[in-house]
Amino acid sequence: MFRGFHTVASGMIAQQRRTELLTNNMANANTPGYKADQSVIRSFPEMFLSKLGPSNIPTEAPINGKYATGVGAVSTGVYMQETIALMQQGQLQETGLNTDISLIDGLLPEDAETGQTGAIFYRLQHPVEGEAYTRNGSFTLDAEGFLTNPQGLYILDSNGQRIQLQNDDFRVAGDGQIYVNDAAIGQIGVSFASQPETLIKQDNGLFKTADGTNLPSAYDTENVSFSMQQGYIERSNVDSAKTMTEMLTAYRAFEANQKVLQAYDQSMQKAVNEVGRVN
């Protein structure tokens, strides 16, 4: 009985966390460059139950022994093991703003160890933790003319330096080169992650490496190709309809576990108050 309480409670906790994850995805459905989170729910190791029974061994002096009969496996609960960001390309939306620049995936090689496709990101200068990475290309110019992201972090060029412009009268080519009056002044920095699932997702659509090291340049990585489109932003890759369906499924699963928990509670209440009562 008490094992049943634990199993049902673990299912409720897992579905609650999944609902919170899906709610966060829905809240960021209109955030440029946002990558939807996916949950991985796994089961705890199962237990194999057996029962002991008497066994009479036919000998001259009968021996009464014990033997075990298998009953079956029983689950000990579930848990949310991890969350993984879906790196699929989002749709492009035209804005007409020169400071809006979208990354367009081209050829991205798969990792030989995991078989997962790599991902590319803009390079940002983090004020505390070195470099950070994002897919949100909705940039602005600060008071000093530096190209920044919506949170005010500096966009870095391919050499790891800040990008400073006189005004928003500039052109970005498909290869990331920035032109002012037809003169190239720099190239927007882009990094490549061969195992994007190992990146740590932070607030505001930022990513960091687990060990704090910088990702390699996508320009210098073999078999990596991509392009940029000025005047466009990459929309979130959240599928709103699918997310709503998954939220309803998670809610129903939580509700089912809740009813089982109530049934356990009523059984325990009856056992305590009625079983063994002497009239």
TrEMBL record:
PROSITE patterns: FLAGELLA_BB_ROD (PS00588). Residues 229-273 form the Flagellar basal-body/hook protein C-terminal domain. Keywords: Bacterial flagellum, Cell projection, Cilium, Flagellum. Coiled coil: none annotated. It is found in: Bacterial flagellum basal body. It holds the Pfam family LlgE_F_G_D1. Residues 118-180 form the Flagellar hook protein FlgE/F/G-like D1 domain. Residues 7-35 form the Flagellar basal body rod protein N-terminal domain. Belongs to the flagella basal body rod proteins family. This is Flagellar hook-basal body protein. It comes from Psychrobacillus mangrovi.
